[in-house]
Amino acid sequence: MLFSAHENANTENGERLMVDLEIDDGLAVITIDRPQARNAISLETMDQLETALDGADGAAALVLTGAGDRAFVSGGDLKELSALRTEAQAAAMAFRMRSICDRIAGFPAPVVAALNGHALGGGAEFAVAADIRVASDDIKIGFNQVALAIMPAWGGAERLVSLVGYSRALLLAGTGRIVEAAEAERIGLIDQVFPRASFGEQWRTIGRSLAAAPAGEVKRVMRGVPTTEAVAAFARLWVSDEHWAAADKVMNRAR
């Protein structure tokens, strides 16, 4: 079944949707679609992200991406967020977006960030909340919040450390250095890079492959469960119809 929120292109108050949810055969795709702001995240975008995540609940895999080919997410929407002038307002905004990123990181099924364009500042934090990052070969990524005399606050600094190590993470986020896709792949910040021409096809293939496999169980075990739970998960899969159908295909090919 294919469902897309673009079938209803406006919110209840008549505003254009900034976040699209598409669900097709267990694969949920959330797209931030704000071309006029390079897919920057506003407070309304946060509302719609939460709604999209609600709608993606139960999906076998989730992909996060941006519309167009210029930006994945260019960070927070400075034009709107500049209205936040008190520490309390800034903290509330940071807590809210961090909770969304934490929700992405805790999503039960595998989450892929498909970097169709540049991921800068908060956009890089949004990307590292996913389990897997794939990118077009012409994008750049950087934790460049220091250029605004601020720091990552959506959980990205901590997640960056787990991906590239403490010293490299401090060098990147401390200087705000922006790296190209090839270097980001080399240091482990991005997992796989594809040519621009085939990027859309490639990330969808990965998403569908994850949705069609018991990758959610694999993810749960990788996060750490007691041995008895890991073995029980394997046993449930072993006796499933899907396992025996796949096993029959393998054995038939071997004959």
Automatic annotation (TrEMBL):
<comment type="similarity">
    <text>Belongs to the enoyl-CoA hydratase/isomerase family.</text>
</comment>
<keyword id="KW-0456">Lyase</keyword>
<protein>
    <submittedName>
        <fullName>Enoyl-CoA hydratase</fullName>
        <ecNumber>4.2.1.17</ecNumber>
    </submittedName>
</protein>
<dbReference type="Pfam" id="PF00378">
    <property type="entry name" value="ECH_1"/>
</dbReference>
<dbReference type="InterPro" id="IPR001753">
    <property type="entry name" value="Enoyl-CoA_hydra/iso"/>
</dbReference>
<keyword id="KW-0276">Fatty acid metabolism</keyword>
<dbReference type="GO" id="GO:0004300">
    <property type="term" value="F:enoyl-CoA hydratase activity"/>
</dbReference>
<dbReference type="InterPro" id="IPR018376">
    <property type="entry name" value="Enoyl-CoA_hyd/isom_CS"/>
</dbReference>
<dbReference type="GO" id="GO:0006635">
    <property type="term" value="P:fatty acid beta-oxidation"/>
</dbReference>
<comment type="function">
    <text>Could possibly oxidize fatty acids using specific components.</text>
</comment>
<keyword id="KW-0443">Lipid metabolism</keyword>
<dbReference type="InterPro" id="IPR029045">
    <property type="entry name" value="ClpP/crotonase-like_dom_sf"/>
</dbReference>
